[in-house]
Amino acid sequence: MSTPHNEARVGDFAKTVIMPGDPLRAKYIAENFLEDYRLINSVRGMFAYTGNYKGKKVSVMSHGMGMPSIGIYSYELYRIYDVENIIRIGSCGAYKPEMKLFDIVLSSSVFSESNYALTLNNEDCHIAYPSNYLNDTILATAHENNIPVTVGNTICTDCFDVYMTNINKFFERIPEGFNPVAAEMEAFALFYNAKLLNKNACCLMSVVDSKYISEVATPEERQSGLNNMIKLALDASLKL
């Protein structure tokens, strides 16, 4: 069985899927970290691969940009392909001056102004949470490998925050005391789908821009310069 968005057959995906946004990053992970991998989806260029990482079956699939895109792919992975765990690995903009380029962030909750939950499930919900199980596994793995991780609340926007005409007005609408450490564009839909379908999700991010950082990561650096985050996600998958 396949879907209009995914040509893979039921059983092609592992129970744990690592999800970057960029299809080329999914390809990079398969080619550089997995053994005996095979391409299981290329519909719309949204590459998905299943292979072995240190002897364990794992899948990697891109999810595109924005909540509608990851909303579709993660929903189908959970509902149609019986995936249990999704670890999103992506990029983010940092909101704290002490954070540096390629620092790793783990979301502890995410706020969004989106009506994703209202549209999907008639629930007026704007804060969603990751799986404690996955977050704890990520943090334990990071500790074992001496990889620093910033844990904090994040925001999920419907547009690239750099393009906002007045980001201060947006900050005024964030719940008081939420104090986000970073921003991205997908985690709310992923977390909400996991909650709705009784599955597990978490979101790891690497800092690629910040108003406090003069340099900005190039597309090539975003694709290949995030190896610590990629390895952390894959090593954590061994415990799931």
What's this, in brief?
By secondary structure, this protein is of the alpha/beta class. It has helices spanning 23-33, 67-79, 116-121, 132-144, 167-173, 187-197, 219-224, 227-237, and strands at residues 16-20, 35-41, 48-53, 56-61, 85-94, 104-111, 127-128, 150-156, 182-184, 200-210. It has a five-stranded mixed barrel, surrounded by four helices.
Walk me through the structure.
The chain has 240 residues and is an alpha/beta fold. The protein has one domain (16-237): 3-Layer(aba) Sandwich (Rossmann fold). The chain contains 8 helices and 10 strands. The chain has helices at 23-33, 67-79, 116-121, 132-144, 167-173, 187-197, 219-224, 227-237; strands at residues 16-20, 35-41, 48-53, 56-61, 85-94, 104-111, 127-128, 150-156, 182-184, 200-210. The chain has a 5-stranded mixed barrel, surrounded by 4 helices. β3 and β4 form a beta hairpin. The relative contact order is 0.21. The mean pLDDT is 95.
